[in-house]
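REQUEST FORM: STRUCTURE PREDICTION
Request ID: SP-0412
Submitted by: Lab K.M.
Chain count: 1
Length (residues): 666
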Amino acid sequence: MKILFYPKLAFNGIKKNKRLYFPYLLTCSVMVMMMYITLYLARSESIANTPRGAWAQLCLWLGIIVISLFSLLFLFYSFSVLIKNRSREFGLYNVLGMNKRNIARILLWESIYTLITSILCGLFAGILLSRLAQLCLYKLIGTEPESGLLIDLGAVLITFFIFAVILFLLLLYSFVRIGRLSAVKLLHSEKEGEKAPKGNIFSALIGAVLLCIAYYLSVTTNAGIDAIFIFFIAVILVIAASYLLFISGSVSLCRMLKKNKKYYYRANHFVSVSTMAYRMKKNGAGLASICILSTMVLVMLTSTISLFSGIQTSTLIRSCDISLLIQYGSDKRGDTLTEYCDTALDTVKKKGGEPENLLSYDYLEVGGLYIDGEIIMKPVEVADNASANQIRDIYFITLSDYNRINGLCETLSDGELLIAGEEITGGGIKINGTQYSAKQAPMPQDITYGETIFEVMFVVLPDSKALYDMCLMNNEVYGESASQLTRYYGFDVGVDSAEEERLAGYVENALAEKYRGDERTIFFVEARCKTYDMLVATYGGLLFLGIFLGLVFVFATVLIIYYKQVSEGYEDRDRFATMRSVGMTEREIKKSINSQTLTVFFAPLIAAGVHLAFAFPIIAKTIRMFGFADTPLLLISNIICFAVFALFYIFAYKITSGIYLKIIER
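STATUS: Completed
RESULT:
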């Protein structure tokens, strides 16, 4: 009988505290389910063997790391709320004769029950939903499904190990917390943090300053590699500022409301403001957590939805079905290059294709600096000290090619250039010390400039001789690492993706066979559909991960709201019982409760909307490095996602506020 004493006591403890334990067990089970599904998809050979699956699985492995870290942090939060609300129960055990070791045994058995329940329920749900998740991923990346429902034992073992470690760490935390408190403190630990806060204007000001700095960085940061690092810095600043403002700023808000006699000395406001003032430290931290999670959901969903929806307009996709890029030395020009194009066209015709919409142009791509109206070509070791915002990916093209591509009739006088992609001030520009007059021009429409983490600018030169001279300057500066002149040939074939890729393969083989041994010329053949497939797989995987993690964060947001309402309900129950005894009516109590919840509950949603609005510029610049160029689409995604999330947030408020009212009415 003694052997079953602690397991039975632990089971009864879970049963009696089901209002607190059920959400915790549900959280553990959902996290297990999400982890198994992500591992199942990331390890799936059927997905890896599809044309686009490998790219998607790279994104999923990133998601596994995120889910693991978030599970640890969020389960720690849920468990700390649970332990605090059960401290009085453990204090009673201690008073009735149990020592801390006996209580530790109860906690150990509760952790075992939690692990078994969450693993069984989570894996059961994960295995059932893994096929649905697989079909959704196949749909997003545009691949036909290959296999039915399978169970990945490796994913099961990894999931079990991860959550066994997490629950073991939480058990150690409970041992430390219970072990450090006496029986008296355990009995009264639920009342901790209810001293009237002194408030800290200095902390609130620091929070406001940090938030302003984060917003300033987001609005003023230029596109380029710096945008990624500054984005993470801004995220850290926003998180710190949110916690400081919601904790210290909410205290200041309560003080201001108290000073407003017309507002404070009313039945429905007097109790609510006084109650908030006594637990604003804990309340503020919970509200800040809700705000941060809401912002994370919105940023992830808007970014991934925009990337996936904007694939067709991505700057990484060539405008022609089949593209031939020929890198050649400055001494190899004219008819020799035309032969490459003729060979490509003849090969396509022989294989049954019909080339059309021919596009051809020469360009020189150079990495350089743009500082105070001057383009500076410098070797890497010299340019290392430059700011990333000053680095440019510069394309030099001829005026005739530029006019033909854009359907324009621009002209240039002696010593004059056209500049696209960079604002020109003063009417002039320098290139390695040589002064030119310059005119602003629109970006070329059909030139694909590929993957780059830096801003792109185009310099339109008068003729081929000027392009050749710029190539000589480039060779002189960069030596062996200098860029080569490149001729682009592109044409459409009007066939499906499989045939398009097959024709591109024929072209590549024909050129390799005919020009074998020509070491002065390097060529590349690209099929537009292949780049499209890669982007669909990558962005589809990111979208799937964004939706997946978004669901996790939304679930976490709802659970924090739930715990906040339940914890405060139990704390406020005695206060409102006292208010009833001194004559406060049920109607006045409900008005007071509504005043309390509405005063602070929607603050996280409003703050998340403000964060999202100020994050818009830096998000647009960051995803631009993924080839995304449709800023209006990103704006529309932001508005729609925020509106949908706000509706969901209101629904969560309605449900959880009803639970709070039920606790108060008992």
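NOTES: Strands lie at 322-328, 356-371, 374-376, 391-398, 416-420, 428-431, 434-440, 455-461, 485-492, 521-527.
Reviewed by: T.R.
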